[in-house]
Design brief:
The protein contains two helices and two strands. By secondary structure, it is α+β, with helices and mostly antiparallel strands. It starts with a strand and ends in an 8-residue tail after the last helix. It comes from Streptomyces botrytidirepellens.
Amino acid sequence: MPVSFIVPVPGSEPDLDDLHHLCSEQLTAYKRPAAIMVIDSIPHTPANKVDRKALHALWADAVSRPSDIPS
């Protein structure tokens, strides 16, 4: 399941419905995220690469709390 993680500009609150709409207009169906998750920062490994395992853990944690699953 594709999931998008976004880091908003400080002080802003992204409109997830608008983001989903934009994705549906701009991306082919198989690339559209099933969910968009707002996070404070992108986690990095010691080699300064995106820490995909940490992102997966964030998503797994959100899924384990059904009331908190982002849309």
